[in-house]
Amino acid sequence: MQYPVNEIFETIQGEGHFTGVPAVFLRLQGCPVGCAWCDTRHTWEVLAEDQVEPGLVIGAGDGEPRWAQWPLEQLVAHLTGPQYRARHLVITGGEPCMYDLRPLTERMIAAGWRCQIETSGCFEVKTDPQTWVTVSPKVGMKGGLEVQRSALERANEIKHPVAMQKHVDELDALLAGVALEGKEVALQPISQQHRANELCVRVCIERNWRLSVQTHKYLNID
Ligand code: SF4
Fold first, then answer.
1. Of the listed ranges 27-31, 166-170, 212-216, the one predicted with least confidence
2. pLDDT tens per residue, range 117-149
3. Minimum-distance ligand 1 atom for the alpha carbon of 43
4. Secondary element (H or E) of residue 10
5. Whose CA is nearest to atom 2 of ligand 1?
6. Does 115 show up as a binding residue in the annotation?
7. What is the CATH number of the domain that holds 37?
8. Crossing angle for the helix pair 165-175 and 194-207, nearest 10 degrees?
9. CA atoms within 13 A on the CB side of 24
10. First vs last Cα of the chain: how many Å apart?
C-alpha cells in the first residue's frame, strides 16, 4: 500500500469540531472535484514529472504540485516518530477518499492516535470505523461528481461552505432523508465575507447547528 503525499506538517486544526487541537496534517495528492474556490489547486493532478523523493514533502507548505509516493510502513514510522507532539492526524487533500485509508488509519489508531478525514463526500469513505469523518459536501462542481449518500451517512460532521442562501438550500436537499442523530452539522462562511457570516450565524441559530470559522485564516497560519 502506498499513498501519494503532497505535504506533511504539524499545526493547529483551524476549523470544525477539532478547532484548536494540535494536529499533523497529511495532504494527499489528487482531486477531480474541481471546486471554483479551491485553495489547494496544486493538489489536483498526480503528474509523473512532479514526483519527488519522500523526504521533500515534509513540511513543504509551498503550494507546489510536487508529491511523493510513501509506502504505508514508512509513512506510519514517520508520523509516529519523535518529531511530532500532536496525536491527532488530519488526512486531507486533494481528495483523500480517492484512496483506501483503512490500512493507514488502522495503524495510526492502533498506535494511539486519533484520525480525522476531511472529504468532499464524492467518494466512498474507506477508513477505520473509529476515524472521525468530516464531509464538506461539494455540489455542482466542474468535475461533475456527485456527493455520495454513503459518505453523508458515514460522516461524524457535515461542514458546509456557505456564501449565499442557495448553498443552505443545497445542503437541505442533500440531507433530506439522512439520519442526523449523532452527527454535527456546521455552516462555514466562505472567505469570511460579511454577508456569508451573517447568513451562517442566522441559520445556525435557527437550526441549532454549529458555526465553523476558519480560524487559521485569521491567524494567517497553514
Ligand atoms: S474537493 Fe477540496 S481539493 Fe478538491 S477541488 Fe474541492 S476544495 Fe479543492
1. 212-216
2. 999 999 999 999 999 999 999 888 899 999 999
3. 3
4. strand 2-12
5. 94
6. no
7. 3.20.20.70
8. 40
9. 22
10. 28
